[in-house]
Batch of 2 targets.
Target 1
Amino acid sequence: MKSTYDRKHSLERLEYYYQVINTTVLSKQNAASGLIPASVAITTHGDYTDAWVRDNVYSIYCVFGLALAYRRIDDTTGRAFELEHAVVKLMRGILFSMMRQAPKVEKFKKTQNILDSLHAKYNTKTGATVVGDKEWGHLQIDATSFFLVALADMTTSGFSIIYTQDEVDFIQNLVFYIERAYRTPDFGIWERGDKSNHGEPELNSSSIGMAYAALKAINGVNLFGARGSPSSTIYVLPDEMTRNKITLQSVLPRESNSKEVDGSVLSVIGFPAFAVENPELIERTREDAKKKLEGRYGWKRFLRDGHQTVVEDHTRLHYNDSELKVFENIESEWPLFFTYMVLEGLFTDNMDQAEEYRKKLDFVTIDSSLWDPENPRPPEDYKKEGNSRRPSAPCRTASLDLSTAPADLHIPLVPELYYVPAESIEAEKKNPHSQKRIPNDNTPLVWALSLYLLGNMIYENLLSPSELDPLGRRYGVKGEKSDHVVQVVLLSENEELQKTLSTYGLETQSIDQISSSFTVLPPQALVDVYSALGQNNKLELSGRPNHPVGTLATSRLYRIEGHVYAFTPQFMDVDSFYLNSDPDYLVSTIESELTFTNSNWFFPGRPTLTIVLTNAMLGDITNKGPSNHNVSNEGLANALLTADVSKKNLLNFFMNLRSGECNGVRIRLSRLTETVNTSNIESLDFLINKPDVDWSNILSTNKTYLRKDHNSHKRLGFNESNVTSPGGIHTPGGAKTPGGARTPRRKSVFGGKSLGTPLDKLNHDSYFQDIATALEKINTQSAPAFKLKDHEIETPKSETPAPPSVGGNDEVKEKKSADLKINTEDNNQNSEMLLSLTLGDLSQFEPAVKSLQASVNLYDQIDLLQYLASCKNLDEYIVDLDATIRDLLEEVYVKSKRLQYWSVARQASGLLNKTVPSLTYNLTDLVIRQKQVTIGSGSTEHLISTPVGPDTLNKMIAEQCLDDVREGPVVQEIIISLGNFIRTSPYMFDGILRLRTHFIIIALREEISRINHFNEEEAIEHLMQLSPFELQSLLGTVLSGPGMCEDTTIIVRDKPGGYLVLSQEFDPARRSSAELPNLRLPPSKNHVQVEMNDEAGKPKKEVLVIRAQSGGYNAGNFARVEINGNVLSATTRGLHVWAIDRLEKVVLEHASFDTHISTDESEDLVQFIRSLEQGLIVVMASKDDFTEHLSKEAIDVLKSLGASKIENVKYRDSYVLITEKNGDRDQAIEAHKAANEGPTDLIEEEFAILKKNDILPSEITTENISHFCPSSNGRWLRRRKNDGALNRVPRHFFSRTWSILDNCHGFKIGSHFLPRDPTVFEKTSEEFNFALAVEGFLGIFRDPAERQVAVEILSLIYRMQKKNPDCPMIEMNIDLPAIMESAISDFWNTWVNQNKEVFEKSPLFEHGFDYNTHKEMAHGLFYDLPLENSSESTSAYLVKSIKKNLNLNVDFDI
């Protein structure tokens, strides 16, 4: 590379490049339109006389570069001016062509339909369209995006391309056109879509990457340059930009579903996009593409690319089944990709790469003086023969006309591609890269030549990378993860709440106290503001579509005419769906959004999250004391208290933000005025000069933040946002509901179970309540009260009423109806009778209305309303209740949310067809990361592989969730939770391609059933009663299956009294100490002993090693416990208690008690300790302070555990204890340090894991027989069930399965086959479509555990073949169920013989040990065997079965 500057030499070289560019590029530019044709040829491969958008921009880039080079030397010849305006003319020519299609841009913003897209090519002379919407794959997002990238670079370099506000508005709408590229399948850079050329669009990395680059480049660019105003500036919302970035990162190095790799990714990781910020991903993508695509003459576009090979049938555009295999190893090679590699090397200062590929380009370029298009030859021949075979006349072809060029001008021609000639096809297939290739007739490819010349000019120091990249996008690569301080502004809805919060130590401002120069608005106001962006009546452009704004957008402050606006985040909209009525769920949402914001923030300044706290959100903490004296019904008070207890977690969460950290994110609580100097502030001044936009009205419409009447339930006459406290207006009273309409099926499920929801209230009289007193006064307009009655009921006489049936028989199901039997009781006769209702049967409509009038039970009310809704339209007016069915459903819906009766909330939500606003966004987050989602089951199962709109998704859910109306909302919750998980913890989805919501619900049900010993119906009812957070937690546990089988894994119940079990991977407060160095406790005092054996010589896994340490407020402010290397950290103030079961290695309880703030917490601590069973290990650690309101009774209880130092603990001291309940008090270990002496010493204790008691033969049942299988502990069965439901497979599973399939006739499951031909002929080993084919085939298995064993079988066959490479081809179909059955039968016979003496005495085996008789039991036991590392493992039995069934005589043992 030339490093010294010589003006004379530079002028000579610039003159040379001017002649080359003038001959090859500018001579083709149309004088009128400014557009450039691809060539003037019409060949069998297409009409190249048209002007492609992509080719035009690439072609003009060398002119742009040369103009900058002339500008650098202060050119006085006029060349710089000429070249600059040639660039401007072409860019404006493309702009005019696109502006003529402004109606398509407007339509595409809303539809993303391929027929509404801008055209990909135009008439070179006129700029008009040349082919119809359906006659070409026009949707090429990368082309439109590249135009915007070039526009940003050129404008920033000083080129004036945009002249009017109309043009600015159009460019702004192009931003909206491409911003959803992450969810829009297109035809891609090669215009064909799917590689089979059937015209199927797909999501392409190259399109998403270029769109992200365009959004990043054009954001903030003033298109009028230095003379512009805010109105001529382009704005991009950060969340759309981030979605494209995240999608790109998750898909690379793959190009699309059909292309496992593509050379086009070079344009994304390097010049011109520079779209990838992760250096490791850039390297991996480049090396993967290089390994699979590079040849001597260039790179293949993608594997099995048949374009312009001699064996391609040019008479048709598409390929037939199995035809793609024909092109393997003879794909055409394109020198174009060498130019990308040179430019990337030059822009990133990787001169070794630049030099390497410059040499490769020297080999494949052809001197124009030697080029004879009538007799093309391999480049080796040109280099060897030199000038001896120069053509007799200058070249004049469709692609190149040298007749007017200087005679001594030598142009390095870059061919479009090199192909294998017909006579060399077979030799090339046998020995790839061995044969000479010939250039095609499209030489030079101007696109490639332009990039080649750019690289040469930079290499010769005529041009610098900074001139071509004035925005510095090439510096976007970040070696380290960004870390920001997130500013959180907490506002109280009124001064009363502010004062209450201050007593808890949480300082806030009320909305009225905010400075007059600030206004806080809901997120919809920002949506309304940005809807004005790009509006243009002349072009009939509406501006930004009405999509919700994301957290990144609301984490900025906005200024217009000096006034500052802050917007609350979208996820805090608690009225939109019942999810946010669950405080725990809201906490988890805030935590994940803080993490997301910190990870993806890229603006200057800090992100600022503005949160408005309300009484409804925090559980009416302004009431003094828990008495709820306004509530006449004790049951209602208890229910409200139960609901409010969970809201304490929300208050604790906000208080803990004071510590300055939340899940590893640095937090700073601030007042709004304090954030101005450190926040990112975006200008909204573009609104001022919009004559069509009344911006002041847009912002003043939402001026009063809490005024939500416009979206409240006006028909009911109440405002849900004001539902805060018990007391107030009562609904009309009345007689008892006859018989006290309980729903017995719920009693049978939940009797005796203690949950965090009010389920236990169903078994007491107190449930029947004056429900309306749970709600505050109805709004100020004296609207009518709630319509449904409330009443307290006496204890029902019958202990076990007859259970109702819902959809109890096949005949009813066929009619899409169900039976509803409601218990009623005659007031006078005290006799019971049943009101039997069949959904859709009008005959009982009036009696149902009467029952509804009298009902005081939310569960019966919703069942009755479901019946009424099945008979008539939701808008049917019920005269007796003075309301429509919809109004009554809304009433029950609001009440159930307030009292956290989640089953009722789900049922009402399903009947009202309510939808989570962010549902499609979360679904899109899954799909864009290559995760398919299915809804429903069986033949009608809907498969979603591309993003869908809200209406389509809602219809799918409604069609598939008919059996239980609650299933639809649960499916929505699952999709929302999966979306949250994949954004924050993508590793949880490793090995998962398809997420089947129906099977996930089954997995959740079985998880509940296994843990709580419920039957199927009970487990489903339990599932429906879970709070949204509990359901999300359970789903997270199911997703974390692979970690459940580790010997050191500690299982943790999710909350005190909870019946869910969380694994280490899901619990955000618990990680391996090796994973979180900042949580690592000091080294063990008995390190060697812990690592190896205890004194009795027991292996490490037979003991629980518990270590604990505490630091008070002034000593680090932490409380940590480590169990077998798993750190359990505490996040809240007070005393933390863990109760551990030595039998199952389960942390049964984890509770925290803020005894600093309340004596009530001390009472709770006492009750908690007393409720623990004897023999449990109890660990305690304090954080901050816990002594302020620690009662005498609490101290006595702690002393009973062996806490001898507890009376010495003072304010903010550090304290920790390890003991065993009802064990030897002298054996308790504790540590205490004064507040100013630092944290406690590390205390450590080991406990032997207890063994299960022996079982007598007479006591053997199907539930406990696993006791006789030493390797069976329930975890492997659980893992296989969960992983099977999630369709999880090991790493590299699909590529290895491809090699197995290529070495046999096919796979067989029953009557279903996956044949070798055409599967391996159509699809490559790492192609996503092949993975989907295998995924669909394995989906034939109905038992998730059985499916996982099939995955193990295929993995073992691959390992056997790899260890024995000479293994012959398997001349048969691999019958997976047959192999499985043989292995399980072998296991059963072996295991029964080992335990025959005991089993012979058991009644369970009184009919013998026949495998077929006990097949179900045998399968269950086999599925619970460990995978390997034991003679009693699934792999050991499967290997023997594989050898036997496939007749394999190979050396392979487990």
Note: The CA atoms of residues 519 and 565 lie 5 Å apart.
Target 2
Amino acid sequence: MSQISCKLVDDTFGPYAGHCRGGFDFTLLFEESILSIVPLVLLIGVIPLRILYLIRRSVKVEGGIILPTKLILYGIYGVIQVALVALWATPSATKTKASVANTVMALVGALALGILSFVEHQKTIRPSLIIEFYFGLSLLFDAARTRTLWLQGYNVAVAAVFTVSMVVKVLLLCVEAQGKRRSLRAKWRSQSPEATSGLIAKLTFWWLNPLFLTGYSRSLSMSDMLPLDKHLTSEYLYRQMQSAWSRMAGQKRSLIVVYIGNLKWHLLSAVPPRLALIGFNFCQPFLIQRAISFSAQPVTDSTNNIGYGLIGAYFLVYCGIALTMAQYQHLTYRVITMARGGLITMMFAKSSLLEANQADSASSLTLMSADIERITNGWQTIHEMWANVIEIAIAIYLLEIQLGVACTIPLAVAICSLLGSVIVMNMVVQKQGVWLEAIERRISATSTILGSMKRIKMCGLADTIFDTETIDRKHVFAFTTPVIAPVLTFAVFSLLALKNADSTLDVSKVFTSLSLFALLTDPLSSLIMALTAFAGSFGCFGRIQAFLETKEHRDGSIKAIDAVTEDSTEPSKLSESSIESLEWTEKPIAASKIERVTGFLSKTDGEALRVTNGSFGWDPEKPPMISSINIRIPRGKLTMIVGPVGCGKTTLLRALLGEVPPLSGNVKHSFPGDIAYCDQSPFHMNGTIQDSVTAFADHDERWYSTICAACDLEEDFRQMHRGDQTQIGSKGIALSGGQSQRLALSRAAYARRDLVVLDDVFSGLDLDTENKVFNNLLGLEGLFRRQATTVIAASSSYKRLPFADHIIVLSESGTIAEQGTFAELNATGGFVSSLDLPAAGWEAKAGEANLDVLLPKANESANVDRPLIKEKVQDDEFEANKRTGDLSIYSYYAGSVGWIAVTIFVVAISCYVFCISFPQIWLGWWAEANARKPNGDLGYWLGIFAMLAVVGLASLVISCWQIIVKMVPQSGGNFHSRLLRTVLTAPMAYFSNTDTGVTLNRFSQDLQLIDMDLPISALNFFTVLVLCLAQIILIGVASTYAAVSFPIWFIALYLIQKYYLRTSRQLRFLDLEAKSPLYTQFAEVISGLTTVRAFGWQRALELKNRYLLDESQKPFYLLWAVQRWLQLVLDLLVAAVAVMLIILIVELRGILSGPSVGIALLNVILFSQHLKLVIQYWTMLETHIGAVCRVKNFIATTVSEDTAAEHNTPPPDWPSRGAIAFNAVGKSSLILALFRMLELQSGTITIDEVDISSIPRQEVRSRIIGLPQDILLLDGPVRLNVDPYKKASDKAIIGVLQDVKLWENIEAKGGLDALVGEINLSHGQKQLFCLAQALLRQSSILVLDEATSSVDDITDAMIQRIVRQKFSRHTIIAVAHKLDTIVDFDKVAVLEHGVLKEFENPGVLLADEGSAFSKLYKRGGIDVDFFAKKGEV
């Protein structure tokens, strides 16, 4: 066409320019109006609004070179636009109706962009989204305009200047895309790199590159994690979610609806890229159809232009797929991170509000671990549910165009698959409930085991506890559709074609239809999996909602006593001026000792606490646990509560704290909220000793040193290699019983509260230590008395009653038996009088502390010259997790399931892949045969096709059956038994040095991954991996020229994975490492709710939880992000392969046949789809195989306490005599050494002349009866707990329960089949229960380790009587702090600092006033003649 006619065409809207410029161009008017003026109008309209919004904001950027550079470039760009206006305005220019207007608008736009750039640079922390988007879009349009101007040939000057303008615009885009992080002011410099990145950096995940470089060059740590942006922080998420949840209080509410409602805009942000992805995906069949028809066309200039257009189309489509896929998934995972953060913060906040009797750490941990993981997995495909429906509908419609009525076949197959998935979904929800309950039981049992390892080892319970669990699995439907649908569809189409003789199956139809089948089967299988996963997450939301709606603890039952009472008109506190005039630890003290003991001037007058007609219990439908309580606790005094075992002492204390609700009456405090509490079983959070003492209070070194001295901890510090920086372990497992109680006491004293509640805290202390601590805290100069602190102490011992200011005695029925001062009760003839206790000997207390000694100078410290050693990171585990992709890990897993099973699985999957891949070649041959003989030999072609489908389907069933039914139970059982055996044989040092949360992670999350997720990931990953290999082979077979380039692609893949894996594996480990403190803290708070609420730590713990959660969110979120980076890079690699193939097709027309083109391009589509799945399943497999790696590493690095020297088997009746000899044994704990829980430093221990070091330690423990202070009750019936060895008859079990006076209570609750947790045994009754266990065992040796520490004197006497009656022929070794219980023993060993000081008959030692035992006995305030008279020696 001539230039004159083309000039006329260019002045029309077009958009097609006809035969001008090779017949492959737009008209100039269309380009100027649609590709230039429309974007400019929108831009100029938006810029003023954006400037008005930003102008009110503060400046966030300091000076730098970027802003001047931008302004200079905008100046150049503006000058160029002026030049273009001048060129277009000249009469000689060949222009359209819009040319001048377009250029003027471009000039205005340049000016507006310069102003906006200046404001955006100053007022925002990130590059301008508007500017980046406009420049990126307009550059694509400018490229088309530049091509048009140069091809016109008559506007050369304009074309040249416009090209320069385009170059400047590219430079502007590069500068505008630069981040401003280095120029930000200090306040904003800590923002997340993602938050400070621009559009291009976010689209390409460029903001992750610094993290990749760090991870590639060295090991990552938590300090290397990128900060979270505001919308991912726990504080923001909790505020948003909790407020929405609270607004619906009192209504019928749904937690999942609340979350979807609050996250709707974040959820909807993923919709545009997902819709764009649908569009790009369905461009592919049209491109294949056009490419096949194009490959048969002759080589001309016109077809060459079409070829170049195809190349450009392939580039845009596949790059579009890469970008939209990555962005859609990233935005989805961002929402998942937000949902996870919101749920965990809400659950933790709720945990501190639970009723104490409703708190179950196992079920709560299951919610936080397993349920949150299920929700995370379920929401990954939340957008697939609607998008897949659209894709299925489009695919069916396009198949109808290609194949007519035969398209109903895949629709029918799809419906059948969906119906099957709905049925299976219901099964999944039900099975998931069973699975989660099994997880709860496993976590509960593991937590109990970890907290009671000393008792388990002493009692030889390891073999009894050792057991395994297996969990059922689910279905596979998704891979059936691509096998069945194509066969049935092509069969129906061919039969109809044969009947009607109006069409046949040609190459174009075959491969266009196959591409549509690919686009149908992918969303269909995805929809099935998405529905199943979302149904599972729906059930988890329901479980979490039930937890959030659990009845809450209410403090409303505690009321404040009026400031002025009938007993006192004095305030309870000193005035500020009087406090300032005193020493910081002191309050006014009268001159005489009597005044110091009986009152602190008027400051201790009045009531601290009052209970009126109180009855307390958990269930209003049942009788109260304690009733008719009317008490008045005097302020500033020591009140003691005593009574027989099981009378309700602990219940009364918790009622006073508001923990046990009143069924009637009321409780009033003088100072609610100013309380310190020490539980009978001390509550400790993992950390250092110093952290445990100070808790959440500010550290005051002088006061801290005073408290440590008062609680006699200084000697303990000297014996610990790290002093008060020693880690105490979860639940204080690294501490002895006495140390644990003194540490809890020191925490209560350090808090300086007005009310201190103590629940039998002196029971685990020896007499000497008890005297020191009691007098330092409650003596005449004791810290509690000097501060006029009100102390309420329940005690199982009566010897301290004379020192109490007020005494409350409970009866066995849980009512007040008597109350008053010691002098009053001693004169009434009641319970206290019957004890015949001597008066308090205040003057005789040589151990009373001098406060001046306890107060070091302000610059002194209890830990001078003791360096703080940072805890060693678990380097072995970290390095192991970096190697999770090693073949050795996969080999280890394969070995656990059996190599034969693995081989069968691999062969079956390979056969399945062959049967769904080879039909492409078969269909190509069939189409070529049809071209020669339409619809001929139909039975032959269809028969082979159907046979392949049947064999493929059978292979799929075999592979799924093999992995789900055969391999899963075996691997799950193997790993669980290996883990449990490793834990049970680990030395005691492991449990003191290892956080419980870490070990619980192995049994909860890791076993969950191995049991449930790893097999499915392995099945899916291996299947799609073999599919990808098959598709690469088919591409190579179809295009040998493409096969030549494969080595280059493989090298690129190798470099990409090498760069990616170093960082991703470390992130995966850090993700798991950061979860452990979350689990630990959650379990600690649940187990210590009473202590937490008494001290008022809820807010501090919530803040700590949010800090831990934010730390956990960082690797969790970044792991998703780096996976999206990998997805983008590999999709771009696929785009490069697709572009290369279409270039070959364009350049090799006439050489490549139609079927070859179809096979190659079809497999590009399939390869693209399956590569996405390979990444998805591979990342999941890497995560899940990491669990195997951690378990393997745990088993390999946890040293077993068993040694090779323990090979001798003792006779069946050993030990028959019970003769024990300690030969030159060094400074070790004798009891721990006897039970082989501590290795001897020197010497030997023999029993019946057999060296116990040569006997397996489990055998030694099972042959000795151990009764430690620790209590362990398994989750199960009474029968199992009394006889865990399952050797005794019911009659024998009932007999021992009767001996310890527990059978009556147990029989009323259901007898031997009653669950032990539902009997509500007190701490003392639990010790009696453990004594019943010991009575059933057969041995000649009994070891008592403070077994009567938490029982009253009467029950203690009963236990001593039972021991002497039932074990009269036994060798008895007793570790005793109550010295009166051992004075009738044959020998007493006195140890000091691990050295044996004396070993003799106690009578001989008591007769010698200079003996250490006699001095210790007298320091305990025990009168030998007095107790002999009572008949208790």
Note: The first helix runs from residue 3 to 10.
